[in-house]
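User: I'll paste a sequence; please echo it back and then give the predicted structure.

Assistant: Echoing your sequence first, then the prediction.
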Amino acid sequence: MRVLIISHGHPAFSIGGAEVASHNLFRALGETDGVDAFYLARSPAALPRHADTPLMSLRQGERETFLHTEAWDPFWLSNGGLGDLQSAFSDYLRHVQPDVVHFHHVIGLGVEAVVQVRRVLPEAAIVITFHEYLSICLNHGQMVKTSRNALCRQASPAECAGCFPNHGPGLIFQREAFLKDHLLTADAFVSPSHFLIDRYAAWGLPRDRFTMIENGLAPQTVAAPRKLAAKGRRARFGFFGQLSEFKGLHVLLEAVASIDDDVWGNDATLYIFGGNLENQPPAFRERFDRLIERAGRRARFFGSYRSEELPRLMEQVDWLIMPSIWWENSPVVIQEAFFHGRPPIVGDIGGMAEKVRHGVDGLHFRAGSPEDLADRLTDALTDAGLWKRLHDNAPKPLDLVGFADRHLAVYREVITGRHAPAKRVARSPRRKAA
């Protein structure tokens, strides 16, 4: 079986969860007997296009290729450079001749890429993994209202027009129909959480095309528990991830600053490991700087990190904090926390609440509430036996072998179904994909 994984970025240049998950799957499939795996990623935005072709290697693996794209339209999730999709991208597909094409994102590539695969390779199985709600929500796929960052619990043209009045319900309805037509070209969908499946099913994609597969972790050395001094506490908290408004750093920093001195003591510290601050709006950066200054010696900001550094960084902390104010889906960092034995403290919504069992292997707090998070941090600092109880109940994350096997089962099911005799079932007409 020949499998092509397509991603909107490569983890060598962007360390987002979707990039890491897609590349982990590529690596795992490549080490599986009977599977030839290939990886196509959108090239980093800062790199110029080659004069003769949008394809490039950037000295990554032998079967890893980059595609330069332009004219990205975030409203329609559309690629204005259709000429490259119809020429270089199509030539690449004909050269690789995959049996399965698995998209992990369409950012930069456009939903037209899904339809182009079907045109070039009519017999290939097409699979799409959703990592967030970008098709559903215009607000960066977060399903958070533009007013006061309130959580959005359902999507509709009328609801979305409330956040984006310049577009209006009619245009948003057209967008929804356009995206569904293109996405339904795929044979199957994968989601790392049941919560995300529920959201897309409510939006209108067929639930029976979805399979839940947890993100798999690459092999790494388990970080040993931090060595404590005599009568020492598990008092170091860690944040790992991209820095953005929706990641809730303001909630975390406000919570840390509000805890009484006698509870916090001299040994407690928040370690923040995260990149992308330079790409955030000025207002976010200014607020972050103010909160870091207010937290004083309680918080230390170390900047970005690479995935291979994670075990060493985990050795410095006892707990993992995930203060996101949006639903999340299946954050890889939660699986990494379980793998390294760092109990996670997370918001009580979406994929975070689904993955962490409150009081069993981690703690929940009311998402967006610095006061409730401060209470959970206080529990961690004052309950001497809590860390060990949660640590001992941590589930074993899915490894890359299981990650590959579960995807291969989806691929085989789709391939078998595509080659089975067609059933004579009446079907309602569907508008042809653009």
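The CA atoms of residues 416 and 422 lie 12 Å apart. The chain is about 35% helix and 15% strand.
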